[in-house]
Amino acid sequence: MRWGLRTLFKQGNPAVLALLGCDITAAEKVTDITLQPESDVAVIGGLTTVAYTVRAPETMPVYLGLNGSS
Question: What is the distance between the alpha carbons of residues 21 and 48, in angstroms, rounded to a whole number?
Answer without folding.
Answer: 30
